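Hey team,

Filing this mostly as a record. A colleague (T.K.) asked me to run one chain through the structure pipeline before their review meeting, and I want the input and output archived in the tracker in case anyone asks later how it was produced. No errors, nothing strange. Just documentation.

Input sequence:
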Amino acid sequence: MTTSMSIKRQQSLKKLCQFLICLLPVSHGWIQPIARRTTRISSRSLQRLRSSDSSDGQMKDMEGKTIYQRVFYMLDPIEPTISDSNKSVVVEERVRFQPDSDPVRQSQGYIQPVGFRTLILRDGNVQDGEIGKAFVSLNVHDGSDTHGGAGMDSTMDSAIAMLLYLASNPALLQGKVLEMSSGVGISSLLGCLGAGFVSKGGATDADAANRDTPDDDILSIPSGSPWLPEDLESLTLTDPDEMNLNMVMENAKSLWIESSKLYLDRLDWSVRDVKPFGVTAAASEPFRDNNGNNNKEYRNILAGDVAYTFPEAKLLARAVAYRLQPSYSFVGSSTPAPRFVHLYPDGSDENVYLRRFLERGYRMNVSQDYLKMEKIQFAFQMLPQDEPESSLDDVVLNVQERKAYEYSVLVAEHSVDYGGAGMGEYFFPIETGLFESEQGMMERDWESN
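Output structure:
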């Protein structure tokens, strides 16, 4: 038994060390099919990278080099109706490594992550191997000292899927928009700029979107991004963690989001509000305080993979029902009714509770969409450390791995009979007591599982 485990352990270690990296030939930025067998590196503070033959020559090739790991994400709708637009964007995730500072570890092929994680929005022109022109770039502020590799975080995958979905559905970025549990704002901030790019047809000079990062002043956000959707009145990002909201501010500054459009709120929807609706809120106020006083209604509400349990689904449904604008005024209009959109990995059984609360507890009309996101991971690239990163555009990209991820999109609208303005206490079955028996059955079902 011990011998068998030892053999398996040796085999696992052998596979772990089968990493291949090579300096790719100079050419144009075309995507090439898989040319060599490569293996994904693991997400650790120190990464070990070794060529398959462990030759001293290839190890020395890393000296004085920056090693780049790049992953591309693109939306591949399963249903043609998933998108409001037939255009979309491509997201590139890019991270950097350098040889380990310790000479012994460096000689063994160890590398360590350096710098920020960078997300780049590109146009959707990926035919014939073209990677698309970049129009927005963000060095992500997430509170960490550095990254842990690219393409290895399922939470980041879901955030990018939401980003791509928003970019493909510009109608969701109209009027007053609220995002629940925004984290550091990747999905809504970049999704907003992607939607603006799609709705404007990419007609604005892309170079204007890639300005120098403004001075580090957390009290001010510069204005001037050419990609904000014209019909966006305000974007309110919420999170219970103040540090996340500080990171949202930093990311918004880097993207040149107009200060007049962006609002932050320490909203914790998992805590039941005393007064979850607002009748007297002034029109100039984007939101009210954390005591639940005078919260406003929003044209669209966004959430990405947040309702994991029965209690969370119950509280999220309530927060959404009281904050989403009524639908009655949009009857007969070509303008889409206000929507709540929740994107999550397909097959997540817990979301059945969220749907039942919205449909039965709050009488909302709920539909389901599906989308598929393709993730393309490329083999590592190297450049001399003193060479500008723009030189990567002239280096061939060799595909290492392609994967597809499927997501569900829950879309909910208010019944046209709901009048809004705090009338939920008299309209929603969960408030009037008509939902108590079904809620009890749902709770017992959840507890038994």
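Quick notes for T.K.: The CA atoms of residues 162 and 187 lie 6 Å apart. The first helix runs from residue 2 to 16.
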